[in-house]
Amino acid sequence: MNTLTRETRNGDRAQTEQFVAPPASVMEAGDGYTLEVEMPGVNKDGLDISVENNELTIIGRRSLPVVEGTLIHRESRSENFRRTFELDPSIDANKISARIEQGLATLTLPKVEHVKPRKITVS
Amino acid sequence: MTLIRYQAPELAPWSGVDRWSNLRDELNSFFELPFWSSFARTGQLFAGWSPALDLYQSHDNMIAVVELPGMSKDDIEISLHDGTLTISGERKRESSSNGEKAERTERYVGTFRRSIALPTRVDANKVSATYRDGILTVALPKAEEVKPKQIQVS
Question: pTM of this prediction?
Answer without folding.
Answer: 0.73
